[in-house]
From TrEMBL:
Belongs to the mitochondrial carrier (TC 2.A.29) family. PROSITE patterns: EF_HAND_1 (PS00018), EF_HAND_2 (PS50222), SOLCAR (PS50920). GO terms for molecular function: calcium ion binding. Solcar repeats lie at residues 134-220. Residues 28-63, 64-99 form the EF-hand domain. It is a multi-pass membrane protein. This is Calcium-binding mitochondrial carrier protein SCaMC-1. The lineage of its organism: Eukaryota, Metazoa, Chordata, Craniata, Vertebrata. GO terms for biological process: transmembrane transport. It is found in: Mitochondrion inner membrane. PANTHER family: SOLUTE CARRIER FAMILY 25 (PTHR24089).
Length: 253
């Protein structure tokens, strides 16, 4: 955010942000935020309500519930009225370099963990700026590392699940403690993580294929007006997951 503000404010490109440039940035940014505020304030009463957030996002092809809209407003609402006036809006976004509604929605999505219909198994949608600056691969890398850590941490439970599914029956009842004892008896502590290496290695190609396939399917299914609706998003995500899973299936086996 600081880099974006600095880059936008440094109009003479001298590598420094002086007071006049900073003041001009604030004036220009306030104008953009005013336009964004007015576009959300559908009834022109000077306040943004949850229903107006739902309505505005629906126009952009994003469906959210009233509760999700309230969650957004709570992050901005300073006086607890569950509505956002111009002063609250300006104070909240003054030092956030978002310039239009689409960037503001993306900010809401990241900051409030807002579910706008994208499957968590499909990589995030990245803006052109995020693609150019390399932010996309950093997010994918962070997700891959997080996935590797979480899978490694739960690997013994995954092995136990499979063992109980295979060996458990009415005649051979196996509980959690008995399953762990059997795994330890077979190969010691290391056996609890047997197969986890491949499980972790497949995260990177699976994520990369999902990201690539999701982008390709979105291009194919985009409507004539250039917008991507909820159905197209759902189909793109489903096909991307199926494509990635089919590609890495030998590693699963």
């Amino acid at each position: 955010s600081q880099q974006k503000i600095f880059k936008a404010g440094d109009t003479n490109q001298d590598g420094q942000l002086d007071f006049e440039e900073f003041m001009q940035y604030l004036k220009d940014h306030e104008k953009k935020m005013k336009l964004a505020f007015k576009s959300l304030d559908k009834n022109n009463d000077g306040k943004i309500e949850a229903s107006e957030v739902v309505q505005s996002l629906k126009i952009l092809g994003i469906s959210i519930s009233e509760k999700q809209a309230e969650k957004i407003l709570q992050s901005i609402d300073a006086d607890g009225t569950m509505t956002v006036d111009w002063n609250e809006w300006r104070d909240h976004f003054m030092f956030n370099p978002a310039t239009d509604i689409e960037e503001i929605i993306r900010y809401w999505k990241h900051s409030t963990v807002l579910d706008i219909g994208d499957s968590l198994t499909v990589p995030d949608e990245f803006t052109e700026e995020e693609k150019k600056t390399g932010q996309w691969w950093k997010q994918l890398l962070a997700g891959g590392v997080a996935g590797a850590v979480s899978r490694t941490g739960t690997a013994p439970l995954d092995r136990l699940k499979v063992m109980m599914q295979v060996h458990g029956s009415k005649s051979n009842k196996m509980n959690i403690a008995g399953g762990f004892k059997q795994m330890l008896k077979e190969g010691g502590v290391r056996s609890l993580w047997r197969g986890n290496g491949v499980n972790v290695v497949k995260i990177a190609p699976e994520t990369a294929i999902k990201f690539w396939a999701y982008e390709q399917y979105k291009k194919i299914l985009t409507k004539d007006d250039g917008n991507l609706g909820t159905v197209e998003r759902f189909v793109s995500g489903s096909l991307a997951g199926a494509t990635a899973q089919t590609s890495i299936y030998p590693m699963e086996v």
